[in-house]
Amino acid sequence: MSSTRILEEISAEVQPYRSAENGVSSLFLNRWSPRAFEDRKVSEEDLNAILGAAHWAPSSYNDQPWRFVVAKTEEQLAVFHQFLGDFNKLWASTAPVLVLVASDTKRENGDPNGAHAFDAGTAWGYLALEATLKGLATHAIGGFDRQQAKAALNLPEQYDLHAVIAIGYQGDKSSLPAPIQEREVPSSRKLLSEVVFEGTYK
Questions:
Q1: Strand pairing of 97-104 and 66-71?
Q2: What is the pLDDT along the chain (202 residues), one digit of tens a residue?
Q3: Taking the CB of residue 4, how many other CB atoms lie within 10 A of it?
Q4: Which CDD domains match (predicted)?
């Protein structure tokens, strides 16, 4: 299915909750963060395209500080589930792919990289948008034990851990516990005038 057709199908679901003031592409409106996932594998081709898109994000001095640790087998996912927070385990355990996003806090010459988190965040944004174009859903999880994850995944001490990304095909919200079902709708946004200031902050 073409990306245009995929966006058209997603738009029908998202439209009641989201509209843009300034002619924003439907790609940005259609990307949201559901918690219900189908029991359906993500192809290697699509997963590599999603991670590849993230890797094409811009970065300071082209340092590319982002690092992605991918879990897609039962054994790998079980390790990830151990360091997820209790609430997130309720729904993220059904996602067929989990990706830890980390970043190297040092440049290659050993100097601190003050832009590492900013750049890793940009990479996550690219990942989410490419996933949307592939008809996949993503949800970034901040609630996890970072020290436990770092030890379990053998990550260097100089890496910062930012989020675990759940990736998969969106499922029916009826598969979620009742309290979570109520939250399974695309979120809205503040008015642009509330977050954009011309000249100085007002």
A1: antiparallel
A2: 666 665 666 566 676 677 777 888 889 999 999 999 999 999 999 999 999 999 999 999 999 999 999 999 999 999 999 999 999 999 999 999 999 999 999 999 999 999 999 999 999 999 999 999 999 999 999 999 999 999 999 999 999 999 999 999 999 999 999 889 999 998 988 989 999 999 999 8
A3: 9
A4: TdsD-like (cd02138)
DSSP for residue 66: E
| CATH number, domain with residue 102 | 3.40.109.10
Residue ranges making up the domain that contains 61? 36-174
Give whole-number Cα distances, 58 to 47, 62, 64, 109, 128, in Å: 20, 7, 8, 20, 15
Q: Cα torsion at 183, 185, 191, 195 (round to 10°)? A: 60
Is position 119 within any domain? yes
CA dihedral 181, 82, 132, 40 (to 10 degrees): -80
Domain total in the chain: 1
Task: Please report how the helices 116-133 and 44-55 are oriented relative to each other, as an axis angle in degrees rounded to 10.
Answer: 140
- pTM across the whole model: 0.91
Structure tokens belonging to residue 115: 């832009």
Is position 29 within any domain?
A: no
Contact 101, 138 (CB under 8 A): no
Asked whether residue 136 is assigned to any structural domain, the reply reads yes
Q: For residues 10 and 30, give the distance between their C-alpha atoms in angstroms, rounded to a whole number.
A: 6
